[in-house]
Write a structure and sequence with these properties.
Layout (H helix, E strand, L loop, with lengths): L4 H6 L3 E4 L7 E4 L1 H4 L2 H18 L5 E5 L2 H13 L2 E5 L9 E7 L4 E7 L8 E9 L3 H12 L3 E10 L5 H8 L4 E7 L1
Parallel strand pairs: 3-4, 3-7, 7-8, 8-9
Antiparallel strand pairs: 1-2, 5-6
The structure holds adenosine monophosphate.
Adenosine monophosphate binds next to strand 2, strand 7 and helix 5.
Amino acid sequence: MSQTPLQRALSLIADVPDYPKPGILFKDITPLLADGPGFGVVIDEFARAIRALNENVDAIVGIESRGFILGGAIAKALEIGFVTVRKPGKLPRDVYRKEYALEYGFDALELHKDLLTKGDNVIIVDDVLATGGTALACHDLVHITGASVVAHLFMLEIEFLKGREVIAATHPEVEIISLLKA
Ligand code: AMP
């Protein structure tokens, strides 16, 4: 059976076993990003999915670092703003900070305080949904500003890690959209 352009694009995501440590199957999106038509069709599909929500969206929030590549292109396609959520210590002005648990230890995400405000509606974008910890931390960080999260968008969802359930447990109202389930 012939593939749709979107299926062809998503098939370019490479599986890398045992990276960055034994037992992890890393989903490498760089071959897809390097393919012009493939990258284009994926961004078009994200934009189509956002328009289909029929919600007023003020900004795309991208999670460092692959969320920046996707989120920036989606924001341009929709002609709305792009907001960076970064790993600790990267942003030069006053930030809100949200810590979250990793398998071993903690990490944190930061957001410049003045980029979002009460009443803003945003969509959070990242490449891969795994355990959901990163997306949930970003969601909670956005909430500190008073803004609302309309949806989470991912290129790929690793279903057995149940990140969808983790986000929905505390935010059952939010849409969770992934272009591919693995
Ligand atoms: P998590 O917080 O477990 O949902 O992990 C999501 C974040 O880690 C995203 O920013 C992903 O880019 C990255 N990530 C986690 N697992 C993988 C994986 N198997 N392949 C590629 N990226 C991953």
